[in-house]
Amino acid sequence: FVDLALEKNPRARVVVQMSWTIFDTGLTGDRIKNNDERDDKKVADIMPTQVGFAKLIEMQVAAIDAKLKRQAVFISPAGYAVLNLRQAVIDGKMPGIAKQSQLFSAALGHAKPALAALVTYVNFATIYRRNPIGLPPPKTFNGTLTAEQHQRLQEIAWQAVVDYPPSGVPLPAAAGQ
């Protein structure tokens, strides 16, 4: 896909979404059996699996960029943002969401509205290299999330993107951007 994109537009930027691990353990390990088991998880329990998953993506992207002799592929750190959101829930810093299981629809890890909105903001920030804070809520959520929730999700998304160098989005020099 990268070759095709660059053939049509030599200045193209390709963005790959790093997702979050399924069952909180990926394809190996002691999988959760039901969504409620997430409520007992600590981010530190899940982080090693996410880091391992990220490293695989990073290696593949690095190989593509090395072949091209430039950075053409960027990684949208949705997986890390999801863990940051889960930590916010654990810490009581995500308005209206008291349990991690409220973010997912099943043990596999499909997203409910708050998680889907977060990933939307992470991808926006990575693709457009712009801070999503202040964007109006996407209409697709039909008011299921409050303005306060959207703002917190935008903050979490932006921080995840600027903290992850393979996103290609540096933290702006001006504070609060």
Report what the structure shows.
The protein is mostly helical. 44% of the residues lie in helices and 5% in strands. The protein contains five helices and two strands; from the N terminus they run αβαβααα. Strands 1-2 form a two-stranded parallel ribbon. α3 packs across α4 and α3 crosses α5. The longest helix has 26 residues. It is globular. The two termini are 32 Å apart.
SSE diagram, text form:
Layout: H1 2-8, E1 14-17, H2 43-68, E2 73-76, H3 78-90, H4 113-128, H5 147-162
Parallel strand pairs: 1-2
**Which spans have pLDDT < 50 for at least 5 consecutive residues?**
none
Spatial gap, N to C terminus: 32 Å
What average pLDDT do the residues reach? 93
> What portion of residues is helical?
40-55%
Molecular shape: globular
Biggest β-sheet: count, sense, barrel?
Answer: 2 strands, parallel
| Strand adjacency order, main sheet | 1-2
Radius of gyration: 17 Å
Percentage beta strand:
under 5%
Q: What's the SSE pattern?
A: HEHEHHH
User: Treating each run of at least 4 consecutive H or I residues as one helix, how many helices?
Assistant: 5
Counting DSSP E segments of at least 2 residues, the number of strands comes to 2
What structural category do the secondary elements indicate? mainly alpha
